[in-house]
Design brief:
37% of the residues lie in helices and 21% in strands. It has 208 residues and is an alpha/beta fold.
Amino acid sequence: MEAAHLIVGLGNPGAKYERTRHNAGFQAVEHLAAQWGSGWADEKKKFSARLARAEVSGHTVLLCEPLTFMNLSGEAVGAICDFYKIDEPAHVLAIVDDANIDFGEIRLRKGGSAGGHNGLRSIEQHLATPEYPRLRIGVGRPAEDRQELSSHVLGPFSVSEMVVLDKVLERAVMQVQCWLKHGPEQAMNEFNGKLELPDEDKIGRAHV
């Protein structure tokens, strides 16, 4: 029997972080769970995470929201991989926000550096390799030069951004489904890039 795939959305637990840019990973896996009709279970004691389960394209898929806060995300990932015997890093997909990518763009890669993202760095430490796939959701840079990057990513999406974000997350769901069914190369070729929107919906390539 093939080992399960783990899709982990990175973010911070708690109501104050729910709709922030830094929680785009959480929002993505919640969209996946809704698409697949999967219910969430609180596995805080066992894995320090919320988990949902689905059967997709012949694969058993675990969806995960770590409850460790962003910088310790690898603790939950490592515990889940150990328990479910997910030994192949290629079966672990991390979905994260990325301030170095324009808002409206998504980018899947088969591996690589953490790029300054502490959540990815933590996963790399626990998997003992940087060669696991990651799907980056662009949240852009602050509109004002004087605004600190940390306050930008920990701030909420604007109302107009949320309209675009829903479309971005729909595209991310399609990319993940393609990754599961056809593999990373096809998923990257078909879905990497910026969402094409009508002119009136282009509400700031990086922010509003």
